[in-house]
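The protein record quoted in full:

***
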Amino acid sequence: MAVGLEAKRAKTARGRRILAKREPKLIENPRTALIVRGQRTSAIVNSVLTDLYMLKKPYSIHFKRHNAVHPFEDVTPLEFLAQKNDASLFAFGTHSKKRPNHLVLGRMFDHHLLDMFELAIQQVKTMHEFAKAAPGGASIESKPCVLFQGEWDNFSTLRSLRSLLLDFFHGQVVSAISPIGIERIVSFTAVPSSRDNETRVLMRHYVVKLKKSAEGTSPYTELTEIGPSLDLQVRRVQQPSDDLLKSAMFHRSVTPSQPKKTKNVSHSRVGGRQGRIHVPKQDLREVALARMKGLKQTPLKDTPMPAAADATAQPSIDPSPIRPKAGRRGEAVVERDDSSDGHHKKRSKKVAT
């Protein structure tokens, strides 16, 4: 399915603009996340997916219909949805008797699966349960402060999961941020275990409130939990291959101030971007231009030019005789035979008799 979408070309200006936005960029756009429900879900899974959608808003797309998809068996449907919606992250919720209340988080690279983690939801408190305790909350598009606590560096699985969580809640890329502009904090605490399938990750979401301090040097910071509050347990993991991970981590050294050199294209502060075009020699007589009828030239025919007249030549005398012919009374008709041009002509002249 993905191959067919790549081969398709845009036929309209709107389609070309959409494809231009999907092209690779030096500074990437904020990553969009797909929130997808599995074939069967529970109320707990639906509430968790809704809260993740609210945390990622406006860079998230929520599919509320059920999809018969099994990511660890066949990830092709998710790759198709990711390419169709230009998304590089996904959160997939499912519920079954064997695996109750499970959440799958994953990343895409070039519209193909990079890695994904299956997390079991053990305890949950939704944002709706914290509405009375923390009225007002935080703005939707505010950039969160992502905090990791615990032994994340001691286990390879937790290091990969930390990278995934950081990409999922990173938000927009900014050069600087004011301390006053930090409105919320997303905290992840790792609780490792001797068994891989018993490693726990505790997720908490706080809103930052700045109050007046007694010292007066800096404001007093107060954290209020606003949810969601999740206790997750790591289950199945699919790690990326070394070659695919190397391609995904590759970063060009080109910057917007020093773009990549292009043949016959130069940049200057005064003229900006300038290009040199090499045009071959043209025959202006063959250029298709709008011509007026009055200036149209007819081609000359290959006919011999007439010979010049001789000034000394004597005028030719027609030797045809002039014979009088009887006519009416008092008139005489003179008939002359002009057959030099191949036609018989008669000329009449009145003569007094």
